[in-house]
Amino acid sequence: MLVCFISELAGAAVLLDNGTYDSKLQPLLRRTILKLIVNSNNADYALILRMIQENIGCCGADGPNDYLRLEQPLPPECRDSVTGNAYFYGCVEEYTWFVEDKSGWLAGLCLFLGFMQVINIALSLVLVQALKKEEKSYK
């Protein structure tokens, strides 16, 4: 149980460190999305990039200028389906904003479960002591 408790604390710490704005996750996302844009002539890369941009509602790593800088055409999924304008924010910012809301709840849940385990350990020790005391009284 101690290993589980330490794992939950470590997981919550990593989640809070990597799941928020200006984290170590952003450069990795930026490199990955730029790699997807450069290799968008490959069908698999294009599908992944299309799914990211459509589901998050973003364009490029840092905005539509990434496509211009890399001399790639602006894809239709970079545009708002209602207005037709290109999304202003890049996928790195949109994704970190999305994860920031969720990471606080998940880290709180991990900490809650960890402290429930601590309470469980304490109550188990009390139960063991009570059983030993009861066993001595019967002897």
Q: How many strands, what sense, and barrel or not for the largest sheet?
A: none
Low-confidence stretches: none
Order of helices and strands: HHHHH
Q: Mind telling me the CATH superfamily name?
A: Tetraspanin
Beta content comes to: under 5%
Shape, please?
rod-shaped
**Radius of gyration, Cα only, in angstroms?**
24 Å
CATH class: Mainly Alpha
Q: Count the strands?
A: 0
In DSSP terms (H or I, runs of 4 or more residues), the helix count works out at: 5
Query: How many domains make up the coordinates?
Result: 1
- Provide the CATH architecture: Orthogonal Bundle
Main location: membrane
Keywords: Membrane, Transmembrane, Transmembrane helix
Transmembrane segments: 105-131
Subcellular location: Membrane
Describe the model:
This protein has 139 residues and is an all-alpha fold. It has one domain (2-138): Orthogonal Bundle (Cd81 Antigen, Extracellular Domain, Chain: A). 71% of the residues lie in helices and 0% in strands. The chain contains five helices and no strands. It has helices at 2-18, 25-38, 43-56, 65-69, 91-138. The longest helix is centred in the C-terminal third of the chain and has 48 residues, at 91-138. The model has no long low-confidence stretch (mean pLDDT 87).
